[in-house]
Amino acid sequence: MATKRTSPRSQSLAPPTAEWTKSFQRQLLGWYRRHKRDLPWRRTSDPYRIWISEIMLQQTQVATVVPYFIRFVAAFPTVRALAEADEHDVLRQWEGLGYYRRARQLHRAARVVVDQFGGQFPRDLDCVRRLPGIGRYTAGAIVSIAFDTPAPILEANTVRVFSRLIAFRESAAASAPEQRLWQLAEAVVPRRHCGAFNSALMELGSLVCTRRAPRCQDCPVSGLCAAFRSGEQDQIPRPRRKPRTEAVNEAAVVVRRGAKLLLRRRTADERWAGLWDFLRFPMVARRGAKLQKELVEKIERHSGLLVESPSHIATFKHGVTRFRITLDCYLAESADSKRKLTAGTWKWVRPEDLERFPLSVTGRKLGRLLVESQ
Ligand code: SF4
After folding, report:
1. Which parts of the chain fold into alpha helices (H)?
2. Catalytic site positions
3. How far is CA 187 from CA 101, 146, 153, 225, in A?
4. Which of 62, 112, 221, 281 has the most crowded Cβ, counting Cβ within 10 A?
5. What burial class does residue 303 get, using C-beta atoms within 10 Å of its C-beta: 0-12 exposed, 13-18 middle, 19+ buried?
6. Does CATH number 1.10.340.30 belong to domain 8-230?
7. DSSP summary character for residue 334
C-alpha cells in the first residue's frame, strides 16, 4: 500500500514533545537572565506600569518608548491619576509617539479600572481583555509579567521566533495559521516564571532572532530550531508584501489675527483625533494664482474666515501609513474680526502658549518655527 506523503506544513505542526518544551524553556530562561536589557518597565511588577509599557511598545521601538514611558508615569504615577487627567494632558504626554488611539483608549481603560475595579488593576485575564485597547496579546503580556499567570503571547517578535522554531512556512497574517501559532504559544508557556519566559521570547526576537539576518550562532535555542537545521531561517516567515505608497500634497495654514494664532481640535473621525492643529487640508494646485485661489477658498470653507494672500513659510515631508505627504505651510492674516468660526472646537492662542497643546509632529515643528522666527 502506498504511504501518504506528509506535507512540510503538517510535519512542522506536530505539537512539541515534553522534552523539547522543557529544554526550550530552560535554555531560553537561562539566556534571558544573562542577556536581558535593563528597561524601566522591567524594574517593577506594578501592573499599571507594565500595561503602559505594553501599549507604548505596540508598533514602536524600545529606544523610542523609554523616554516617553519615563515621562508618562512621572506625569500620571497611578491608574487613578491617569483616570482623573484631562484627555488633553494625556495626549500632550503622548505627543510624537503616534497612533494616538492608543492614548485615548488607555485613558478610557484607566477610568474603567477606577470605576469598576476600585483602582486595582484586574488580575483576571478575561477582565483585562475587556478593557478598551487591550487584545489577547496585551492581556497575556500584562498578567504573565505582572502576576506570573501562565498566559501565552503572540506578537510580531514571537510570531517570527515560533515560525522559525517549527519551520512554519505560512503567513500568520491569515486567521488559521495565526491560531496554530497561538496553540504553540499555549503549549510552551511554563506554569512558573511565565512572565520572564514571555519577556524572554520577545527579547530573543528583538535581539537575536531578528527579521533580517538572524544571529543563529548566538542563539540559545539553535539546537531546537527547525529553520536553522534546514537553513531556512532567512526565508521564514515569508516577507509581507509592502503596501504601495501614495504621494499626497497638503497645506497647513497658520491663520493669525493680531497676536494670536488659530488652532482647531481634530474631530473623532479624523487622523490624530483629539489633537490640536493648524488648518490642514489636501491641495490640488501647486503654484501661482491657482494655488493662492485654492488656499483662500479652502481656508474660508474650513474655518469661515476670510484671509489675505497666504505666504509660504516652510515645506515638510512626512509619512502617515502608506501616504508620503508633502506639507506646504503658510501664514495668513485674517482681516476679518467679526466673522464666526465654522462648527467645531477652535481657539485663538498666543504663540508662546502652543506648548500647552497636544499637536501632531508637523504641527509642533511649524509652531516652533513660528515662535523662533518672532
Ligand atoms: S536558531 Fe536562528 S532562526 Fe532559530 S530561533 Fe535561533 S535565531 Fe531564530
Report:
1. 8-12, 18-35, 47-57, 62-75, 79-84, 87-94, 101-117, 125-129, 136-147, 156-165, 175-188, 194-207, 226-230, 288-303, 361-372
2. 54
3. 33, 21, 11, 16
4. 221
5. buried
6. yes
7. B
Q: Which CATH architecture has domain 246-372?
A: Alpha-Beta Complex (3.90)
* 3-state secondary structure at position 308: coil
Nearest to 207 by CA among 35, 57, 55, 58: 35
Three cell numbers at 258?
493680531
pLDDT at 59 exceeding the cut of 60: yes
Asked whether 194 lines ligand 1 (CB < 6 A), one says no
Task: Please state the domain extents for the chain.
Answer: 8-230, 246-372
pTM of the model: 0.89
Specify the residue with its C-alpha closest to ligand 1, atom 2.
216
Mutate to test the pocket of ligand 1, among 181, 211, 221, 234 (most ligand atoms within 8 A of CB): 221
For residue 324, the one-letter residue type is: R
Q: Are 133 and 55 in contact (CB under 8 A)?
A: yes
- In the chain, the percentage of residues whose pLDDT exceeds 90 is 87
| Residue nearest atom 8 of ligand 1, based on CA coordinates | 209
Q: For residue 28, how far is the Cα from the chain centroid?
A: 27
216 CA distance to ligand 1 middle (Å): 5
Judge if the beta carbon of residue 161 lies within 6 A of ligand 1: yes
Residue 225 is predicted with a pLDDT of 97
214 lines ligand 1 (CB under 6 A): yes
Q: What would the pLDDT profile of 316-368 be if each residue is shown by its tens digit? A: 999 998 999 999 999 999 977 677 787 779 999 999 999 999 999 999 999 99
CA distance linking residue 32 with residue 197, whole number of Å: 8
